Amino acid sequence: MTPLEAGASTPEVLPQPEPLAVRVGREHSVGSLVDFIDSLLVTVLLALFGTTFIVQAFKIPSESMEPTLLIGDHLLVNKFVFEGTGAWYEHLLPYRPIRHGDIVVFKFPFDDHPHYVKRVVGLPGDRVRIVSDRVFVNGARVPEPYVVHDPATEDPVVANFPPTDRHFMQFGLRPEWAAKIMDYVRRDELIVPPAHYFVLGDNRDRSWDGRYWGFVGQDAIIGRPILIYWSVDASSGDYGDRSVSGTIRGIEQTIAHLPTRTRWHRMLRAVH
């Protein structure tokens, strides 16, 4: 081998051109990855927007709204319906006020604020009274064809409300509500304060509702159920364990018994 002369430079080696098929394949892979990430971000943003402003899914874990809503009903809740939040876009979008008889999903006023579903009976400023299971609002009896009663119930708060004295406070009232309920009672009627609503369950004698814990603030209301998109034959015990493992077990059981436990006749049923 002839040694290089002093001061001589190494001969330049020109890079070989990359095969066209390899280059195109790599560009296609990068482009596909970018498109996938872009589509994923758009999907996530749309999902966040949808669940924040338009619709959200919930399931019914208790019997308090039977027969209108059964344990195991899975609902789509319209969040794009009620005005009153004070947001700037309320005047631009088709929001409406909450009405008597509306079924609403809301955040419970106490504890960790779980979501509840009940029917609106009293609007702000209304006078509400229950006499022998009959509901009166502003002195007029309210027709309630959707309500069921259990004649075996002996709770005096159920059939006659509001209480006339402190003696009734022992019957399951939330302590915070028991301490101030009489502040809202005038002439045997409950006065609903501004920006609040009084709600009851359709399964009137088996519903832990406004009679026992008070009013629902307007800012706590999420929306109105519009559709039962799926319903599964279940009991309240199936939803008792709210831990991660309990939720996973519940999902596994539901999937395993999907064909036999699905209430096909309730699928895609509108909620009223």
Please explain how this structure is put together:
The protein is globular and about 85 Å long. It is an alpha+beta fold. The chain has helices at 20-54, 156-159, 175-178, 210-213, 244-256, 258-261, and strands spanning 55-59, 73-78, 103-107, 115-122, 127-131, 134-137, 140-141, 185-186, 189-191, 196-200, 216-217, 221-231, 269-270. A hairpin with a 2-residue loop joins β8 (185-186) and β9 (189-191). The protein folds into two domains: 18-54; 60-270, Umud Fragment, subunit A. The relative contact order is 0.16. The chain is 24% helix and 22% strand. The model is unreliable at 1-11 and 42-52 (pLDDT under 50). The strands form two sheets. Strands 1, 2, 3, 4, 10, 11, 12 and 13 form an eight-stranded antiparallel beta sheet that branches.
Summary tags:
Umud Fragment, subunit A; 272 residues; alpha+beta; 22% strand; disordered N terminus; eight-stranded antiparallel beta sheet
Task: Give the topology.
Elements: H1 20-54, E1 55-59, E2 73-78, E3 103-107, E4 115-122, E5 127-131, E6 134-137, E7 140-141, H2 156-159, H3 175-178, E8 185-186, E9 189-191, E10 196-200, H4 210-213, E11 216-217, E12 221-231, H5 244-256, H6 258-261, E13 269-270
Antiparallel strand pairs: 1-2, 2-12, 3-4, 3-12, 4-10, 5-6, 5-9, 6-7, 8-9, 10-11, 12-13
The percent of residues in helical segments reads: 10-25%
Helix-strand makeup class = alpha+beta
| Rg over alpha carbons | 30 Å
CATH architecture of the largest domain: Ribbon
Distance between the termini: 95 Å
Order of helices and strands: HEEEEEEEHHEEEHEEHHE
Continuous helix count: 6
Mean pLDDT: 81
Beta-strand fraction estimate: 15-25%
Q: What is the CATH homologous superfamily assignment of the largest domain?
A: Umud Fragment, subunit A
Q: Give the uncertain stretches in residue-range form.
A: 1-11, 42-52
Q: What profile does the largest beta sheet have? A: 8 strands, antiparallel
CATH topology of the largest domain: Umud Fragment, subunit A
Please indicate the count of domains. Answer: 2
Question: Per the principal axes of the C-alpha atoms, what is the gross shape?
Answer: globular
